[in-house]
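STRUCTURE:
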């Protein structure tokens, strides 16, 4: 009886330091969660918050905290956004390090870094805070003190605390925006992770010397206080109407700070749950105007411009003649989709360009020349005659000329300037020509029709015409069926109906990926739940006939190599063009290489050799020689055994017998494109060799070739740094953090030399893929690569 009374008294005694900790449901040392478990998590006592793994894609997991009782399970904190955990990873509560996240090979991916040996338990609290505590309930570490992009009611940020926006809506790696309560007491918002210029500050509380703590109270107000508790600055002012709402405040990936509320229960007679709704004015209230960087892109990426939506959040768009650099993140900027103006003195091309007008638009801070006393016409003429001029800004009598890339772009009623964007004429000309042809054709038909209608023999001619069209229709149908049968007999592929594939993908429900030529969905054939396929729905390509589509399918269907994704069948029904491929369970090489933990050096060796063999087969050994035209990590897929296979032949160019070169418009992905694409030169299989060289660079160094966030400027373009390291005899620097690769430095050097051969500016100097495969495998010696003109400036 005495022990029962003692237990009751212990429960009633307030806990020291924090009243929110609860002993029941606490996690003891050794507790763990696995990334393999579905819905595996540690819940708060009320079940409103959960801590555990969230799947971010095929084989990639995020260790996070989220609202458990709402439909979208909104994430409020994450540990490893920059280093996603592969399938089979575990998080453990250990005496040494506290929370430790490891991959299946027991390599540490993230740790709370707790060195206090008094750690006794962990707990997920109803406030959304995850804590590590001692046996005497002293808080040793908590997620509230290590925020990511979100803060919650009862959370307090002390001096020096930083809140980082994520990279994009679905990418939880660190983005470019952050705010920080500095040690000087000023709360400031920055447009770069590590600001290096005063212009990177786009909002501030102006509380230097007095600010002490940022508080989000339970009433839903976010404010800055002094050390004595005096309120210095209200970030959000309105209290939340009642306690029936969940609350959160987040620094969005686009740089604005917003408070949201969400009803805890159904709030209508129908029982329909309403999602998150904005409860505060964004801070700042006009991001487009707030950011004007001396160095950097501004609110949006380079060559784009910022507008405000109805919700006062920024929208990033491309000007005429430009397209998004990254379709998954509009804030990454835009690239020209035409060949720039030549600066060749003998061919200035002034007659090949025109200036497109954009009212109330400006790109400040990127001008290299300005003139007063100008008219708009003279401003246009000056820009057209200047090959360096990418755009001009005109207001009153002043003309500013801008070089690319354009920065700090904005459009809105508060802007008084007019922008003049230089674009190549040929796209407009071809469009106008087609429209004129169509107009002339329609006019001719109208004239002919009028004449026929006025003739007494019109009815007889009409009957003859109908008979002829019916005959042609039957012949066309029979011809098409015959072609499909022939394709299937030659390739062994299956012809699907659109309805079959619609059913197999459950209405095209689960998207695996998308590109400019189509979207890929996961599907299941037949009743076997394990018989997965990948169904690519091709975007409509103008001018593509049924015969051309079937000819390409026939050629690709006859390829047969273990390092090519197998094409199982196709659909060519009406306007529907679909391709059915084998399903690759381990996703893309991009996900494997850049998002999860770094794959081993020896696994990377196997992958690069797989890709080289697949390309060699396409170029030399298959029935119709094929140039892939878009080799990049996103188009290399990995099967269940991590064997690499080349996919997405949607851009491929088929060569005729004995043909080695062809002419075509620019295809592929910027960053992997060979120089000849931009010089109107005939392309050959050497464009794939160049792309493979960039891929090889990325596999050697296990990072993207272009990394604008690199701490060292010389390492922003990896291919340039690779050449510098080779030229200086310091190849080891490329892999110094990779123990396996460092111990195999002879092979690393051979791969580096091979990569430098692949990315030679002159395509004639690049080896064939067959020879490259032999170089990689060590079957032949790799000669010293020549100095390419593209590297001369970096020596």
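SEQUENCE:
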């Amino acid at each position: 009886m005495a022990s029962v009374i003692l237990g009751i008294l212990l429960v009633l005694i307030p806990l020291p330091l924090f009243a929110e900790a609860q002993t029941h449901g606490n996690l003891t040392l050794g507790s763990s969660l696995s990334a393999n478990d579905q819905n595996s998590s540690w819940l708060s006592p009320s079940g409103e918050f959960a801590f555990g793994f969230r799947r971010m894609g095929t084989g990639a997991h995020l260790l996070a905290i989220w609202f458990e009782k709402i439909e979208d399970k909104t994430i409020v904190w994450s540990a490893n956004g920059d280093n996603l955990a592969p399938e089979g990873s575990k998080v453990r509560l250990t005496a040494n390090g506290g929370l430790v996240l490891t991959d299946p090979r027991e390599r540490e991916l993230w740790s709370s870094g707790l060195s206090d040996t008094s750690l006794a338990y962990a707990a997920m609290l109803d406030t959304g805070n995850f804590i590590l505590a001692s046996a005497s309930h002293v808080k040793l570490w908590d997620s509230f003190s290590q925020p990511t992009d979100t803060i919650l009611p009862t959370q307090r940020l002390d001096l020096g605390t930083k809140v980082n926006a994520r990279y994009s809506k679905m990418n939880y790696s660190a983005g470019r925006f952050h705010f920080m309560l500095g040690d000087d007491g000023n709360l400031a918002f920055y447009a770069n992770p590590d600001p290096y210029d005063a212009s990177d500050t786009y909002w501030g509380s102006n509380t230097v010397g007095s600010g002490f703590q940022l508080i989000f109270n339970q009433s839903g107000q976010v404010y800055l206080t002094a050390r004595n508790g005096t309120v210095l600055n209200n970030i959000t002012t309105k209290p939340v109407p009642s306690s029936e709402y969940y609350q959160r405040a987040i620094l969005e990936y686009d740089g604005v700070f917003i408070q949201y509320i969400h009803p805890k229960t159904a709030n209508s007679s129908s029982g329909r749950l309403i999602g998150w709704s904005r409860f505060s004015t964004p801070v700042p209230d006009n991001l487009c105007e707030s950011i004007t960087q001396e160095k950097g892109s501004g609110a949006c990426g380079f060559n784009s411009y910022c507008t405000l939506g109805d919700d006062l959040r920024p929208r990033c768009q491309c000007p005429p003649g430009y397209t998004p650099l990254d379709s998954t993140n509009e804030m990454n900027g835009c690239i020209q989709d035409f060949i720039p103006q030549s600066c060749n003195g003998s061919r200035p091309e002034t007659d090949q360009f025109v200036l497109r007008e954009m009212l109330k638009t400006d790109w400040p801070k990127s001008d290299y020349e300005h003139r007063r006393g100008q008219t708009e016409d003279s401003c246009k003429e000056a820009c057209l005659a200047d090959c360096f001029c990418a755009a001009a800004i005109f207001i009153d009598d002043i003309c500013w000329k801008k070089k690319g890339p354009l920065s700090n772009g904005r459009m809105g009623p508060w802007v008084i300037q007019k922008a003049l964007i230089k674009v190549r004429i040929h796209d407009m000309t071809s469009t106008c020509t087609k429209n004129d042809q169509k107009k002339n054709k329609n006019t001719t038909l109208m004239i002919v029709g009028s004449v026929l209608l006025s003739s007494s023999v019109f009815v007889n001619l009409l009957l003859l015409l109908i008979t002829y069209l019916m005959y042609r229709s039957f012949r066309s149908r029979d011809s098409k069926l015959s072609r499909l049968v022939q394709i299937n007999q030659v390739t062994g592929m299956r012809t699907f109906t659109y309805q079959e594939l619609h059913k197999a993908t459950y209405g095209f429900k689960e998207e695996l990926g998308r590109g400019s030529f189509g979207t890929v969905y996961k599907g299941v054939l037949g009743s076997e739940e394990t018989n997965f396929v990948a169904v690519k729905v091709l975007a409509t390509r103008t001018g593509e006939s049924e015969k051309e589509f079937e000819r390409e399918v026939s050629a690709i269907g006859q390829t047969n190599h273990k390092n090519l994704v197998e094409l199982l069948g196709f659909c060519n029904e009406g306007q529907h063009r679909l391709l059915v491929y084998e399903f690759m369970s381990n996703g893309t090489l991009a996900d494997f290489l850049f998002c999860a933990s770094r794959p081993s050096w020896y696994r990377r060796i196997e992958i690069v050799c797989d890709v080289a063999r697949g390309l060699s087969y396409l170029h030399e050994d298959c029935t119709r020689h094929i140039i892939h035209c878009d080799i990049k990590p996103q188009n290399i897929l990995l099967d269940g055994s991590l064997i690499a296979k080349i996919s997405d032949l949607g851009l491929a160019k088929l060569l005729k017998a004995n043909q080695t070169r062809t002419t075509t418009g620019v295809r592929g992905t910027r960053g992997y494109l060979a120089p000849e694409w931009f010089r109107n030169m005939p392309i050959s299989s050497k464009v794939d060799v160049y792309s493979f060289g960039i891929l090889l660079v990325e596999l050697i160094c296990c990072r993207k070739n272009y990394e604008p966030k690199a701490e060292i400027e010389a390492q922003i373009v990896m291919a340039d740094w690779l050449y510098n390291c080779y030229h200086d005899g310091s190849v080891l620097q490329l892999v110094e953090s990779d123990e396996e690769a460092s111990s195999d430095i002879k092979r690393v050097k051979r791969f580096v030399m091979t990569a430098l051969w692949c990315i030679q500016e002159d395509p004639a100097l690049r080896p064939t893929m067959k020879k490259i495969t032999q170089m990689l495998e060590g079957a032949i010696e790799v000669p010293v690569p020549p100095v390419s003109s593209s590297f001369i400036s970096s020596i």
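REMARK: The mean pLDDT is 80.
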